[in-house]
Amino acid sequence: MILGKRLRFFRAKAGLTLEQLGDAVGLLPSQLSQIENGRREPKLSALTALATALGVALTDLLSGEAPDRRSELEIELGRLQGAELFTSLNLPTLRNSKSIPDEALEVIVGLSREIDRRSREAIATPEEARRANTALQQVQRENANYMPELDALAEDLVKRAGHTTGALMHRTVAEMAELTGFTLIYVDDLPSAARSLTDLENGRIYIPPASIPGGHGLRAMALQAIAHRLLGHERPENYAEFLKQRLEINYFACACLLPRERSVAFLREAKAERNIAIEDFRDAFGVTHEAAALRFTNLATSHLDLSVHFLRVNDDGGLFRGYENDGLPIPADSHGTIEGQAICRKWPARVAFTRTNRTTEFYQYTDTAEGTFWDATQTGYATNEEFAISIGVRFEDAQWFRGRDTTYRQVSTCPDPTCCKTPTNDLRDRWAGKVWPSARMNPYVLAPLPTGTFPGVDQTEVYEFLERHARAPR
User: Fold this and answer.
1) How many CB atoms lie within 10 A of CB 287?
2) What band does 215 get if pLDDT is binned at 50, 70 and 90?
3) pLDDT for position 441
4) Contacts of residue 238, Cβ cutoff 8 Å, sequence gap at least 6
């Protein structure tokens, strides 16, 4: 579209009609008209001839900037009318016409921008967000949580950076950023809600200082920022798109830290020895336990012929993240949402919190209405809470894992309230009517998610940060 606008601009400046320019380059007027209207892509030879006939450099035609304010407005109007928000209104499309005064076009585009901006101020209610997340989880389940195209992209970048064995080093991640045209810069004044920030104009990716605890997280942050660029992500139009982008960048980062080829070889060898252990997988690649567990779910079904489940449970018993394709009866609400649901107290992800020794993985079999499952569970600490990571399989597949000989076993009959939600008669008789707890409320329960142009991040804070660092010498 921009090429067409620039061609029309230079043709008008040269005082040529479509017929005159067409005669000079051997194209029909109708063909030139299609090019100018953005409906046809000319060959390079035709572009070269057009530039010569117009007396301009080829680079002038191929510039990515609109040639004038009118063209800029027409292009912006086309973009806004092609967006999902406009099409959902079922309004007739306004054709760009010379009969529309510039002032009218300014007003129309300005109003459209404002409607678009306001729609992003509350891009999704919590209910809409949960619904979008549930739909995305269903897609993950159908694909065995495996994205081979992202694995191939990650594998290629890792190899181009020269990494072949061991944990991915920070220096290598910096080289990977340079291969994609960016420089990693460590700063201590990032916008409060931003994990990282990419300056597209100056080719910089800003991340927190390397000295903060948990350096493995810095590698993931940088790789996620790189993924946005490699995958061609644009500003999400809705919350479903926002979640899909988050899923893709997290997957890509994990695929770089635990490359498919070496990961599959490692896991197949462990399976052959009947000694699969997430803690070994974690240590071999120098990542967090959660990253190793999630990566295992990516590869287990497609490469090891194992159906699995994954749970991250907070110390209050609420499910933070979950996945299954082995039939584990993860609790869900009426819309199919699993996040925030209370996990049975008898499941290993809850039992693990009661253990005194939490330095190693905890193994347990759990009998449920859907069959018996085996789990390996590891606890950890976040900023303000403890959490448990569980990876498990059906009973018959436990034979491939370390810890299969555990004697720990529980029987769970949830959602039957008598399983673990109903207090014993003695406790009820002792305390009924004598207590009034004040419930802790999730601060995001009532808030629209996310807000602003940059989801969850203050726009002014972002721009002020960029302005401050763009002037700083590097």
Assistant:
1) 24
2) very low
3) 61
4) 84, 123, 124, 132
